[in-house]
Amino acid sequence: MQTEPGPAAALAEGPLNEGELKKLDAYWRAANYLSVGQIYLLDNPLLREPLQVKHIKPRLLGHWGTTPGLNFLYVHLNRLIKARDLDAIYICGPGHGGPGMVANAYLEGTYSEYYPAISRDAVGLQKLFRQFSFPGGIPSHDAPETPGSIHEGGELGYALTHAYGAAFDNPDLKVFCVVGDGEAETGPLAASWHSNKFLDPITDGAVLPILHLNGWKIANPTVLARIPESELRQLLQGYGYTPYIIAGDDPMEMHQRMAALLELVLDEIEEIQGAARKKRRATRPLWPMIVMRTPKGWTGPKVVDGLPVEGTWRAHQVPVDDMTNPEHLRILEAWLRSYRAEELFDEAGSLKAELRKDIGHFIFKDPQLGPSLHRLRSGGKKLFLLTNSLWSYSDQVMGHLLDGVLPEYPSWRNYFDFIVTGAAKPTFFSSNAPFLEVDSTSGEDSAKPVVIRAIGAM
Ligand SMILES: Cc1ncc(C[n+]2csc(CCOP(=O)(O)OP(=O)(O)O)c2C)c(N)n1
Ligand SMILES: [Mg+2]
After folding, report:
1. Which range is least confidently modeled, 69-78, 108-117, 198-207?
2. Whose CA is nearest to atom 16 of ligand 1?
3. CB contact at 8 A, 321 and 241
4. Ligand 1 residue neighbourhood (C-beta within 6 Å)
5. Distances 42 to 27, 47, 57, 414, 447 between C-alpha atoms, Å
6. Is the pLDDT of residue 299 over 90?
7. pLDDT band at 8, cuts 50/70/90?
8. What is the pLDDT of residue 454?
9. pLDDT tens string 247-284
10. FRET partner for 159 with CA separation of 20 to 30 A, picked from 142, 174, 230, 330?
11. How far apart (Å, rounded) are the C-alpha atoms in residues 262 and 370?
12. What is the C-alpha separation between 77 and 292, in angstroms, rounded?
């Protein structure tokens, strides 16, 4: 279970200042919370009431063990992408960690863009949780319908092949490829370390393999986690890599160390590519790679029924089940609450504003948007905006895109004759629900109905 950071841990030395450290950890907690929610919850998505059996899925499926490590890497790679303006892709070898990839796509907003019914509020959150590994919902592995997916989860072994395939002839791309230590024992994966022999530092992009050494594959220990570290290092060097090993389980300390390590390996990659591109001579370098040794099921329940879970094979799938056992229900509730969702999601169930502050990094500002809307208006068209997002998020995003772009329209709202937020499409088109005016200061619906004439009326 994630523990509150103590003052000493919070001050662990590293490249992150206190604010960055807190935000990074908050984002990781959010991703972990959403992952556990997907595995377990049917209802009560923000734990606004005490957890009861009726809130839990009747059949528990999914893989928790790999997920916190995948989420940890995802948030750190996002930081790096922003800090260095990288063109990057994340290949998730342990594709059974589906909840993690879906959680991150949801936090970024991409999931709701593709699937508007899974909105960024409490209603959407409940649907996100319910649909996971549920009849009529989504698979428990990373599937093609996960936005941005080029690598299907389910059959282990092809992560590095896909990673190098993405990097070939794509010189500006950085490919971060997580490889499970069990996955590394498959024939295809064991052979594909050698793909680095075909990578041209001038004409191709770079691949950063990250071996996720959590020690276990389902119920058995992994070979690479059990051989002495010196032997592992020699093996990876023999494959043509410079391995950097990072090991630990204290979140704050690990945040600092991972942030520092990623800076270092990115410097190394840029140096390799820069030197080769400058001299126009491609020699085969030793590319850096990372070995991340963290507990399986990191931040999950430590002990269930008197048996250790975090850091063991018991964390692989559903670490605590049979919720008719009151002690199990108590463990699950304490686990979920340890991520402190109330600090992460606002009253409406959206990710809190402070975590969304860097919106410019996520949403491309098209300089043509304002002038295009202006042309439509000048041609006598009436414009309306119909969005599932709630007022505060719509205001933030649209303000980012349109405020101050053209002097005739000081606010983005001036472009539109009518704005509908929280529309709840697609039921919007059939439900005939009343329109309520939004108080633009508080973002709350007022009780004041807005009268709309019948569609088609003049
Ligand atoms: C080719 C193949 N063989 C077997 C499996 C079944 N399987 C699912 S998860 C898993 C263990 C994976 O272990 P690891 O790669 O270490 O992932 P993690 O420990 O992070 O869950 C296995 C063997 C599979 N998905 N694909
Ligand atoms: Mg493993």
Report:
1. 108-117
2. 182
3. no
4. 65-66, 94, 96, 154-157, 180-183, 186, 212, 214, 216-218, 222, 296, 316
5. 23, 11, 5, 41, 30
6. yes
7. very low
8. 55
9. 999 999 999 999 999 999 999 999 999 999 999 998 89
10. 230
11. 38
12. 14
CA of 212 to the centre of ligand 2 (A): 7
Residue type, 195: S
Token pair in block for residue 227: 């051989």
Cα 129 to middle of ligand 2, angstroms: 25
Q: Which ligand is nearest to the CA of 62?
A: 1
To which H or E segment does residue 146 belong? Answer: none
For 64-83, what is each residue's pLDDT tens digit? 999 999 999 999 999 999 99
pLDDT band at 424 (very low <50, low <70, confident <90, very high): low
> What is the token pair recorded at 421?
């937020």
Outline where 282-325 has alpha helix (H): none
Q: Report the distance separating Cα 223 and Cα 274, nearest Å.
A: 36
Question: pTM here?
Answer: 0.81
Q: Is 339 helix (H, G, I), strand (E, B) or coil?
A: coil
Cα of 220 vs centre of ligand 2, distance in Å, is: 9
Whether residue 355 has pLDDT greater than 80: no
Whether residue 356 is predicted with pLDDT greater than 80 in this model: the reply is no
Residue 443 has pLDDT above 70, yes or no: no
pLDDT reported for residue 45: 96
Cα dihedral: 130, 133, 137, 142 (round 10): 120
Tokens representing residue 294 in the block: 């963290």
Q: What is the mean pLDDT of the chain?
A: 91
Helix (H, G, I), strand (E, B) or coil at 415: helix
How many residues does the structure list for the chain?
458
| 180 three-class SS | strand
Residue with tokens 């472009």: 415
What number does the ligand 1 atom closest to the CA of 65 have?
A: 21
**In sequence order, what DSSP letters do the residues of 39-85 get, joined into one string?**
HHBSS-TT--S---GGGB-SS-----TTHHHHHHHHHHHHHHHHHHT
151-186 exposure pattern, b = at least 16 Cβ within 10 A, e = fewer: bebeebbbbbbbbbbbbbebbebbbbbbbbbbbbbb
Which pLDDT value is given to residue 10? 42
How many angstroms does the Cα of residue 227 sit away from the middle of ligand 2? 14
